[in-house]
Design goal:
Shape: globular
Number of helices: 14
Largest sheet: none
Number of strands: 0
Radius of gyration: 23 Å
Distance between the termini: 45 Å
Order of helices and strands: HHHHHHHHHHHHHH
Length: 350
């Protein structure tokens, strides 16, 4: 399925290149940097596959070497492909014509290539299937690891005697994902997936900051390079503000004008303030990380990863934040009612 997808994607890029009209790229940022970041946050669920790779550590011969290489190489390849596809599509047709669900196929069908549009539509079905399989690969293994640590009942760590995979966890995952997918809105599901993935990446970046302090632990084969953020991070903040101000003039100044925001969004002032709460939290986190980076010379890469993921979370609506909080509370209830009592850390000698 992956091979078929890649063949179609390469064909789309190669053929679509000859139909690019540079005039379609003007204006290049029609919705400013804010629009770009909203788009990134909306499709961030696509990057959950790289997170899923990390859950297959037990099935790798040399996970400390192979997993980082696999994730970095695939990340570079996918990023390049995403950029090329975006350039070709927006070059072939005006961005305002890409609002349909089958926009990729429609772009070629409008150019008289119905045969290619049909192949692209078929590849979309294959792509969706393969992506769902990857999503279902990671969750059962996470539950299996949690069960081994005592945080979930022992049934979740059961491994199938023939297939050598977490059988019970896989079946439960299939039901918990498949049944809601039949009734829930797809945009809601993808946004909730994106905010959950972003939060997981934030925890990973925070974990790296903690691990960097452990000087006595075993040295891994792959280690995130340390670059002091004491002087670089303030410069990046200043450059980011200048870029946003240049790309979207007046965006930063109008951000705090709740009356103007309420009028433009056709909501009350209270509603405008509510929508801005994630941004205010982000500004507080940014300020704290900036101060800590200057005082304690925090590593630049994980700090930038943490802040960028948190900013993307702010691009999602308050409704998504509310449902994410509900999901998080459910997890905490399971932990404090079961996990904390059965955790292996409470029985270090067993």
């Amino acid at each position: 399925m992956v091979a078929f997808k890649l063949i179609v994607v390469i064909a789309v890029i190669a053929i679509g290149f000859f139909y690019i009209e540079p005039t379609n790229w003007h204006p290049f940022l029609p919705n400013g940097m804010g629009g770009v970041m909203k788009g990134v946050s909306a499709v961030f669920f696509a990057y959950i596959g790289f997170d899923a790779i990390s859950t297959t550590a037990e099935e790798c011969k040399d996970p400390q070497r192979d997993l980082p290489r696999g994730m970095l190489y695939s990340l570079i390849a996918c990023t390049v492909i995403y950029i090329l596809i975006a350039l070709v599509l927006t070059g072939m047709t005006k961005y305002t014509n890409l609002g349909s669900e089958s926009f990729l196929a429609d772009a070629f069908t409008s150019r008289g290539m119905k045969w290619l549009g049909g192949i692209i539509a078929l590849s979309a079905v294959v792509a969706t299937t393969s992506v769902m399989l990857v999503f279902q690969l990671g969750q059962p293994r996470i539950w299996m690891s949690m069960s081994r640590d005592g945080l979930l009942p022992a049934a979740f760590k059961k491994v199938h005697p023939k297939y050598k995979t977490p059988s019970f966890s896989t079946i439960v995952t299939g039901f918990l994902v498949g049944v809601p997918a039949l009734v829930l809105d797809s945009n809601f599901v993808t946004d909730l997936t994106s905010i959950g993935t972003l939060f997981a990446f934030i925890l990973v970046c925070g974990g790296i900051l903690v691990l960097n302090k452990d000087k006595n632990g075993p040295r891994p084969k792959f280690k995130v390079p340390y670059i002091s953020g004491r002087f670089i991070l303030p410069l990046i903040f200043i450059a980011t503000i200048l870029i946003f101000q240049y790309a979207s003039p007046g965006t930063l100044s109008s951000f705090f004008d709740l009356n103007a925001v309420a009028k433009s969004d056709n909501v009350s002032v209270l509603g405008a303030f509510t929508e801005r709460i994630p941004y205010f939290v982000f500004l507080i986190i940014c300020s704290l990380m900036l101060v800590y980076s200057i005082l304690r010379k925090l590593s630049l890469i994980p700090v930038m990863g943490l802040l960028s993921c948190f900013y993307l979370m702010t691009q999602l609506s308050v409704i998504n934040w509310a449902w994410f909080a509900v999901w998080l509370i459910i997890g905490l209830i399971i932990y404090f009612t079961y996990g904390i009592k059965h955790s292996n850390l409470r029985r270090p000698n067993e």
